[in-house]
Design brief:
It is a single chain. The protein is α/β, with parallel strands linked by helices. The protein contains eleven helices and nine strands. Strand 4, helix 4 and strand 5 form a beta-alpha-beta unit. Helix 1 runs parallel beside helix 2, helix 1 packs parallel to helix 10 and helix 3 packs across helix 4. The longest helix is centred in the first third of the chain and has 14 residues.
Length: 282
């Protein structure tokens, strides 16, 4: 039986959120119940997710927008005229609380953007993350000696709303943290991106079009790795650590922190093979 999932994202700025949503839609092990959109002009971001869902034939998946703020969304033009689907009226935080509460102990939360929506949910129900089956986060930078970022620094998702990060990372002991220490080791090689561009698949075509709006060159598959860890733990070696959050959003290993499972190593070839095979074969 597929595992029910809520996917929380700030799709539309870095390209890896779109790759992660496409991967999630091609994982029969996961049942996508809803997408919650956070950070910046959330309705512009939501249009991207809605258009991707429509192209995948998944119009039934609900999309909830969080609070609006200022932020760049370089891929917004790709979906600005899309009007076949719309966000639900319920705010993202309320949607998270209601959906998890209806199925306590069953739902996995995959969070790959700043954690504002999750903090909003916790403000509504302080125990809501304890009611989730598990929580998988792309975020943080631990400065692990063997990682791709041996010098720790405040990672984007964690520092963008550091208050939310503190609240969220302290809310559950069922967290798997997928930090920059491992995700910076998984770029999408050019030849793999060309294979996706040549594929006869609407989601692969969408990713190719979105790539043209993105100002970068080589995508790093930060967020897809978090999705892959929801499918199987085989892609990363983990360590049990206690993690605290500094005022600047830095993630720190110390004895007073929240215990969680931290991805410390990554099986790059296994992950890339999984990622490509799922997107190319559907």
């Amino acid at each position: 039986m597929a595992e029910p999932v809520i996917f929380d994202t700030d799709i539309g700025t870095d390209i890896d959120d779109a790759y992660a949503l496409a991967l999630l839609l091609n994982c029969p092990e996961l049942e996508l119940l809803g997408v919650t959109i956070g950070h910046g002009p959330t309705r512009d971001r939501a249009k991207i997710a809605l258009k991707m869902l429509h192209l995948a034939g998944r119009n039934e998946v609900r999309v909830a927008a969080g609070s609006e703020s200022e932020a760049a969304v370089n891929q917004a033009a790709w979906a600005e005229s899309f009007d076949l689907l719309d966000v639900i009226s319920q705010p993202a935080g309320e949607f998270i609380v209601e959906t998890i509460a209806e199925r306590p102990g069953e739902i996995t939360v995959i969070a790959v953007g700043p954690f504002t929506n999750l903090a909003d949910a916790i403000r509504l129900d302080a125990e809501i993350m304890h009611k989730a089956k598990r929580v998988i986060i792309m975020g943080g930078c631990m400065g692990l000696p063997e990682g791709a970022t041996p010098q720790p620094y405040p990672e984007y998702n964690a520092k963008t709303d550091a208050v939310a990060t503190k609240m969220f990372l302290g809310s559950s002991e069922s967290i798997t943290l997928v930090p920059l220490d491992v995700t910076r080791s998984v770029p999408l090689p050019d030849h793999n991106r060309r294979l996706l561009a040549q594929a006869d698949d609407p989601l692969c075509a969408a990713l190719t079009e979105l790539y043209e709006y993105w100002p970068g060159e080589t995508p790093l598959l930060h967020d897809p790795l978090a999705v892959a860890m929801a499918v199987s733990p085989r892609f990363c070696g983990t360590q049990q650590m206690r993690v605290s959050v500094g005022d600047d959003g830095s993630t720190i290993s110390d004895d007073s922190g929240t215990p969680m499972s931290v991805c410390a190593t990554v099986e790059v070839d296994a992950f890339l093979n999984f990622f490509m095979s799922r997107l190319l074969t559907g």
